[in-house]
Amino acid sequence: MKLSLLSENLQKKLIFANHAISNRSQLPIILNFLIEARKGSLNVRSTDLEIGISIEIPAVVEEEGITTVPAKSFLELVSMIPSGKITLTLNKKGLELKTEKIKTIFQVSSPNDFPKLYENIGDETIRIEREMVNNLFGKVVFAASQDLTRPALSGILIKKEKERLWVISTDGYRLSLKENVFKGKENASGDFSAIVPARVIRELVLMEKNEGDIKMFASKQNNQVVFLQNDTVLVGRLIEAEFPDYEKIIPTSFSTKISFDRQDFHNAVRTCYIFARETAGIVRLSIKKDKTILSSNTPSVGENSVEIETKTTGEENEIAFNGRYLLDLFSNVQEEEMFFEMTGSLNPCVFRIKKDPLFLHLIMPIRVQEEI
Fold this sequence. Notes:
By secondary structure, this protein is an alpha+beta fold. 16% of the residues lie in helices and 44% in strands. It folds into three domains: 2-113, Roll (DNA Polymerase III, Chain A, domain 2); 123-244, DNA Polymerase III, subunit A, domain 2 (DNA Polymerase III, Chain A, domain 2), CATH 3.10.150; 250-363, Roll (DNA Polymerase III, Chain A, domain 2). A nine-stranded antiparallel beta sheet has the order 14-11-12-13-26-25-24-18-22. Strand 3 (41-47) and strand 4 (51-58) form a beta hairpin. The longest helix has 15 residues, at 262-276.
């Protein structure tokens, strides 16, 4: 193997490939990058057996070849190299990295034991425009459960029926749903439903910063999902579990609706959460005709309240939430004009975006012992 490439190109790609490297693995080979020089490019692969990443980097290849190199030290060294040309050569001593002023030799391991990222790519199920990825998945993935003992809740349900696509997540206390209507005829046929690990979707949102649309391939036979974007491949395993019947818990009517500015509401929750985080994170809302008062109270710390301008339709009302859920919602939504609908202080409350009727976020309220 012998090739040359630009350090800045290698640095950028390796950072993403490193997301699939685990420092705790008992399988030494997957602590390495698999690197392969082939015509016109250097391919780098990584996996922790839960997710896999493959990237292509433009290179001038004099001799093709393949090996593995310790991921941590390789990335650390490459990150320290100034912009310019890097030469990689595989010889008897190992993998030699040279720049104008640096010469390093890495010990290598045989690539034969490195796991395959996938056996076959599966069938193409959806194609997502690059600019839609964060809008589609970024508003949903944060609501998935961190508890891996509840597999279905630790994933994102991706469901396609004809021209429509839904992505849904829930941790049992909140639910986020985003719908998309396909414009291209290539997405208008072939119904599909699968649960993809939230971790894979988080990496997909990061991958979205590259150029080009993202294609999703799935193989139920191999229990695998593959996201492909030009020279980047992201691989994960599908979750074999039954997703909750989410449609049953989404309210179909309401007695109170308030419109508000997201930033105002966000700032008010942040202020109240200074006190709320000491006692289960409870933030209370007292809804009036032309305003909403947010408050929190911690006996050992103090209490506070913040008043914001809102427009109320229907009854005045009161409700309490875990403030962390509100902060997560407002941090992952960019639109400013929002509203929420509720019926009673103990029923699920639905948050919506004024200019995006295809999104909703449901939060279960908190029952408090005293009157709120």
